Amino acid sequence: MTFVTDNDVYLPGELGIDGGNPLDTGMPDAMLAAIVIFGILFVGAIITMVAVSVHRYRKAQSQGIDLLTVDQDLAARLMQSEMLRPADGAAPAAAAAAAASRSIEERLRELDDLHERGLISADERAEARAKILAG
Question: Which of 55, 69, 89, 132 is the most exposed place for a label (fewest CB within 10 A)?
């Protein structure tokens, strides 16, 4: 038995699903369209991710940042920071010198702000104010 479609002759073994067109996948058109759209969006997302990564890499390179070692660089800077140094004989003197460089008004204003935010008690505030005013 032979079938004729679009002027071509097919034997039963050569036909597509259910003996129809050999190009027919048996999938509804909406599902096929959804798969094609998903594929296009997926490829577009991959291209966008690559483009963004290349842009960020070039931007970092232009600023002298090596993206492969940036976390180690930041950790080293943090460990060398003045704020993380342990309290020894030199550190309190440096802190006192830095505090003295600010005006008394600024230091008192900072104390009031700390007290208003509830970070220090009224007794701590009074003690610190006395130290600041004593010089």
Answer: 89
Chain segment 33-56, per-residue pLDDT in tens: 999 999 999 999 999 999 999 999
Cα separation, 114 vs 120, in Å, equals: 6
Angle ∠(116,121,122) on CA atoms, nearest 5 = 85
Is residue 15 within 8 Å of 22, Cβ to Cβ? yes
Summarize pLDDT for 97-116 with one digit per residue, the tens. 665 567 888 888 888 888 88
Quick one: pLDDT at residue 47? 98
pTM comes to 0.38
- DSSP code of 78? H
Q: CB atoms < 10 A from the CB of 67, how many?
A: 12
| Strand (E) or helix (H) holding 127 | helix 122-134
Helices 122-134 and 104-116 meet at what angle, rounded to 10? 180
For residue 95, the one-letter residue type is A
Residue 44 CB neighbours (<10 A): 10
Under a CB-based contact definition with an 8 Å cutoff, are residues 111 and 125 in contact? yes
Query: Domain segments of the chain: what residues?
Result: 3-68, 90-134
